[in-house]
Amino acid sequence: MNEIEMKKKKKSSLQIQMDRRSDFSLSSSPPLVIVLFLFASFSLVHGEINLIAPSFTPINRDLYHTSDALMEQIKALVYRHPDKLYMETIGGKNRGYRAEITVVTYCRNRKDIDDKSKFRILLSFGQHGRELITSELALRILSILSGEQFLPNMDPVSLNNTLERLVIKVVPMENLNGRKLVEEGELCERRNGLVVYLRRGVDLNRNWSVDWGKKEKDYDPYEENPGTAPFSEPETQIMRKLCVSFEPHIWVNVHSGMEALFMPYDHKNTTPDGLHSHRIRLMLEKLNHLHCEDRCIVGSGGGSVGYLAHGTATDYMYDIARVPMAFTFEIYGDRTASSRDCFKMFNPVDLTTFNKVINDWSAAFFAMFNMSTHQLDELGSKASNSNKDKLVSIDDYLNGYLMERSSRYGKKMEVLDLGMQEIRTYFRLFLLSSVLLLFMFCSRISKSNRPLVSDQLNTAEAITVDILAFDFLLKVCPFGILRISGIDCKRFVIAIARTSKVNMSANE
């Protein structure tokens, strides 16, 4: 073969390789039409998203204090009025997670702060981080209590007479860690700042012991995480200790998201029975008419909101701590706001609405102080009339009233009732651990090809032992311990039965 033919062959083989590469590159890359179609689709979808997506309202820094600035304002207020106000910071921790709660105590004369003849009121604000307006209301109430600000349409003489009889503890920002997250840009955050295995946040108003852990059909784990157990969070531990030591006559948990005056219960759609409960409802209806212009929903939280809430603070205060008057006040809500535009939904965004909310609800709280003391006076006067030979204090009478209420609901001892919810929960967890250990034991036996019962037992005896074990499991199931972990009770027992049957067959 001459040199010219060799060159022609090399050239032809090279051309074939280039053609193959060209064909491969064309076949491996998407056609131009597909690329253009995807680009157009992405542009169209992206454009629609931009058109549809709401513009989220940022925090109005001209209206709202930062958490640090608000606490500094309160600290300065207490410093200027040491004769009336006292401030303390209570800390707690759990598994490395730390929380602090500031408590401000008001008494006209600080020397009388431990006077048990006075009515005691406990107010909590900012339990959910995204509800900034509630802490602003706390600041205004403290300013009025100090005397630096005044209520325009309230008789000062009547107000002073009422305040003379009160000791008020104010928690301006119960969920400080959650509030910090909101200020960092997570405007929809309502939970605390706990981070465990990338799962963050517990709803502090689902972490109390009354009906704790129960989940409705519309349960949202992002919104309503109840924690690993009742009082698993430092914030709720601190609030429970505060309640036990202070023994309030009145409790108010302040929220936003709607306008409402709620009384117990949250975990069921009914209110408590009895004349006292009826009078409390009448008081709330009067408050609604005078200060809410009849806009507020009045009734039980569970019966009025449209969903049941389990493990709430107000239900605990009423049912376990035996606070005679336990309320949840919802002070603002924008129904027109998108569910994702959380700051606008839960907080006023303009100066006019902001001032109206603060002014109206400040007046409502002080009117509630006045009405509540009259209501408690009526209870005290009944005690005096029924015990003419001796003077009975309001605390002594209320203790009798609460014990009567306790027995009416079938609980003979108040002390036992205080711990029953916690005992039931931990007992269920203990039984759950026992059942899981039994399951692991059976699985281990199955893998090692050993019989469930001793070789010394005959088949009939083995079956009898197994039936007794399965009967025990079936009796345990109604306690709900398997339901806690999502295990189907009957399937669980059947699985163990099958394991037992296989092991016995293998050893016959």
Kindly describe this structure:
GO terms for molecular function: metallocarboxypeptidase activity; zinc ion binding. Residues 63-350 form the Peptidase M14 domain. One of its GO terms (cellular component) is extracellular space. This is Peptidase M14 domain-containing protein. InterPro entries: At5g42320_M14_CPD, Peptidase_M14. With 508 residues, this protein is α/β, with parallel strands linked by helices. The chain has 3 domains: 3-52; 67-412, Zn peptidases (Aminopeptidase, 3-Layer(aba) Sandwich), CATH 3.40.630; 422-507. It contains 18 helices and 10 strands. α3 runs parallel beside α4. The chain is globular. The model is unreliable at 1-11, 20-30, 39-54, 383-394, 400-415, 450-468, 474-490 and 500-508 (pLDDT under 50).
Attribute tags:
508 residues; alpha/beta; Aminopeptidase; 3 domains; 10 strands; 12% strand; disordered N terminus; disordered C terminus; At5g42320_M14_CPD; zinc ion binding; metallocarboxypeptidase activity
Short structural description:
By secondary structure, the chain is of the alpha/beta class. 53% of the residues lie in helices and 12% in strands.
Number of helices: 18
Main β sheet profile: 8 strands, mixed
- CATH-assigned homologous superfamily of the largest domain: Zn peptidases
CATH topology description of the largest domain: Aminopeptidase
Low-pLDDT runs? 1-11, 20-30, 39-54, 383-394, 400-415, 450-468, 474-490, 500-508
- The CATH class of the largest domain turns out to be Alpha Beta
Find the structural class using helix and strand composition: alpha/beta
Sheet with the most strands: spatial strand order: 1-2-4-3-7-10-8-9
Assign an overall shape. Answer: globular
Evaluate the radius of gyration: 33 Å
Order of helices and strands: HHHEEEHHEHEEHHEEHEHHEHHHHHHH
Strand percentage = 5-15%
Helix-residue proportion: 40-55%
Domain count: 3
Mean pLDDT, as a whole number? 77
The CATH architecture designation of the largest domain is 3-Layer(aba) Sandwich
Quote the distance from N terminus to C terminus.
Answer: 85 Å
Number of strands: 10
